[in-house]
Write a structure and sequence with these properties.
Two copies of one chain form a homodimer.
Chain A lengths: L1 E6 L7 H15 L3 E6 L24 H11 L4 H12 L2 E7 L7 H10 L29 E7 L16 H14 L4 E2 L3 E3 L10 H13 L43
Parallel strand pairs in A: 1-2, 1-3, 3-4, 4-5, 4-6
Helix pairs in contact in A: 1-6
């Protein structure tokens, strides 16, 4: 595999950083190639602004249009182009981050906001009343697979089907489906560690073993069965899921999974 | 009302900035007090790091613990303390932002990550096997109400109950329930503008009228009926919703709304 690890934690001695380091060594020892985007170590600029689009920044700024023009012209900033190149190089992308306020830390959201430009991650393919782009299963990043490796402070039952925070799969849906599957990446079931606020040092060996196990079986892991946009499941142009495709009782985000 | 508007768009001439400006003038003309946190204009630091906690930053950095210590000691950075003071001053908080990748822009997530520290927004109240804090309806910010005002590029049907992106209420749940209701803020139904990628200048007067109407009726608007954590609906310590409380067929995030 050619693996890109996008890592978002400020502390090199944190659990998240240990899991990132373990992923690098485990994958390299198994003969895979690895690149790491350690966003804090890179002092990653988290905020989209006109500076991202150089001479293609219009006044007033139009983020979608201007980012697409700068992408087409090859004039995005070097930091963004480097990340786009890493994504094109990789066949596997691991995101390592703590769940902060039920989603990714700002620095990682800023990586998405800046790297996933128009004409690269969205605004790809024909947009008309009969086709609304190549996305959700198609797109620039099709053929790649991604995995979220997430640490969660609270206990697992709080994230269960009836848990107060909401089910973890639903909390991660806007990332897994909305950010990753949108530009074509297949998404593997996440690796989630719960209760990390109260984790003790002596718990780490078991955690490390479970993580190594996931890493060494990535290639045979089946992705989440999200529905493809352009294979007949959705009406056009409403992109409303056709009636009767889902098992009885399935609602909400779950509708967008097959079977 | 004492209204805080937290605004997150890089372009002062954007639709989002126009809606922010209109909110200021509409509320002030109606006799309300208004403060604005214009995050781009403030050059808001989006990224949590050790610099946020001064001498309370431990090595290795522990974000939750260190932020709580710095909060207790009053040594958080001035920018964060100012935002916390604005939140304590306000009875109403409006968040104005574009939906980027199905959630808030990084600069606004970074406002949450940095301002919502431990002992201020979480880690409040007794945490034991019989009580898991004052949150979800209780907490430092109880008694306040918030409203998301969100612009969405795509068309409304894509965000409907069967729309490909998932229902807008579910996409906003991690923000409305997970970020706002968690520290005690009641959340009003959001003001969502769809199809803004293709909105024309001549559409703006109708949009402005609808927004003014929402602003002038905020005081009489009923909040979303999220369930309170500590009123018997949840088992302890699992914080699992008790069986049989929800209408038949209700699942997922919807479980956490009454009635």
């Amino acid at each position: 595999m050619k693996t890109l690890i996008v890592h978002a934690h400020p502390e090199p001695k944190s659990l998240n950083s240990s899991l990132k380091d373990l992923a690098v060594s485990t994958l390299e020892n198994a003969g895979h190639e690895v690149q790491v985007s350690d966003l804090y170590a890179m002092n990653w600029k988290a905020v989209v602004d006109a500076g991202d689009y150089g001479r293609h920044a219009s006044s007033p700024l139009k983020v979608a249009r201007d980012s697409g023009r700068a992408f087409d012209a090859g004039t995005l900033t070097q930091d963004v182009r480097t990340e786009q190149e890493k994504l094109l190089w990789a066949d596997t992308i691991i995101f390592q981050f703590p769940l902060w306020w039920y989603t990714m830390p700002a620095i990682l959201k800023g990586w998405v906001d800046r790297v996933f430009t128009s004409h690269f991650a969205y605004g790809v393919g024909e947009h008309s009343d009969t086709k609304y782009g190549e996305r959700f299963g198609e797109g620039t990043l099709a053929g790649r697979r991604a995995l979220l490796s997430v640490t969660v402070g609270g206990p697992q039952p709080h994230y269960g089907a009836r848990g107060i925070n909401g089910p973890i799969d639903d909390l991660l849906f806007p990332i897994q489906h909305g950010i990753l599957y949108y530009p074509g990446i297949e998404v593997l079931p996440p690796f989630v560690l719960y209760g990390t606020d109260r984790m003790a040092v002596e718990d780490y060996p078991d955690v490390a073993k479970a993580w190594e196990q996931r890493l060494l079986t990535l290639e045979s892991t089946e992705p989440i069965a999200f529905r493809r946009q352009n294979c007949g499941d959705y009406e056009m142009p409403s992109l409303r899921l056709r009636e009767g495709l889902e098992p009885a009782g399935r609602t909400g985000f779950g509708l967008h999974m097959r079977g």
